[in-house]
Amino acid sequence: MDIPKVSLDQWLILRAVGEEGSFQGAADRLLKSQSTVSYAIAQLQEKLGVPLFEYAGRRARLTATGELVLRRASQLVDQANRLEQVAADLARGWEPQINIVVDAVFPRDVVLRALERFAPLSGGAQVELYTETLSGTQELLINRSVSLGICGILPTGFLGEALIDIRMIAVAHPGHPLFAPGTPIDETTLASHRQLVVRDSGSYRRLSTGWLGAEQRWTVAHFEQSRELVKRGIGFAFLPEHLIATELRAGELRPLPLLHGGERNVMSSLVYTDRENAGPGTRALAELIEAEARQQH
User: Fold this and answer.
1) Is the fold of 8-91 the same as that of 165-266?
2) CA-wise closest residue to 82 among 273, 286, 280, 285
3) Which end of the chain lies in a sparser environment, N or C, as judged by fewer CB atoms within 10 Å?
4) For 186-203, what is each residue's pLDDT tens digit?
């Protein structure tokens, strides 16, 4: 068996220097002496046989090779931290906290029923439930702020288990001008009316899924707010069928007879941020969500 030349502590020092931009900054962060940090980086570069830093005064700037090595080293350190956390959780028999994010388009009752069944099994574990929209859901998964997620758009690099195919329908109040007799509702006609869209809750990469480029766009925080404004004749919106089933039956909302694209489907998926190292509580909750999703069909 090959024994690694570089210790995990050296990789940790490399990440600290790369992020702090100086040996002294890394030393302060790691509570080590500057000489210890300098020696570790010198040994690391000697063992790897490649220059990792360029120096300008007291500043240390990563070379192109150094940036590549740092990215891989950060993954290694993160994996080691996650492994220690998993071991600690397993020693307790159950992870102390389970964080889950659910995209706002997903049927809320499915998650609530799963949590209701999970409560007596939880063993005192804390549960933190996030509800996000579009890239907001992806961000929590990518940043590994949660252990489990339900999303409509899978983040790059993640695999998911299909749960429910959610039907999105373009709807408006029955008295909306779009229902005028003989008016063909094409893209141009639709774009001349106010559209209600739900705000992307992401911090960095805002998506505009479902927006048709309408001349007037009103943005709200939740699908429920969009539904209520559409019921008041404020505009049209694409809304999940499960959220407006009662209004459709009562005639409070009507599907828009669009020439094209009046309906679209969003396949929701259950995603682990780290399936292999997921704790028993996370796995139990995931199984309950999958079971409730099957009942929803």
Assistant:
1) no
2) 273
3) N
4) 888 888 889 999 988 876
CB burial of residue 165 (10 Å; 0-12, 13-18, 19+) = exposed
Angstrom distance (rounded) from CA 255 to CA 13: 59
Q: Please tell me the CATH code under which domain 8-91 is placed.
A: 1.10.10.10
CATH number, span 165-266? 3.40.190.290
Whole-model pTM: value is 0.66
Record the tokens describing residue 15, joined without a space: 């990440």
- For 14, 128, 144, 200, the CA distances from 155, given in Å and listed in that order, are 28, 21, 12, 15
**Nearest CA-CA partner of 160 in 103, 117, 116:** 103
Question: What's 96-159+271-296's CATH class?
Answer: alpha beta
* Residue 276: partners with Cβ closer than 8 Å, 6 or more residues away: none
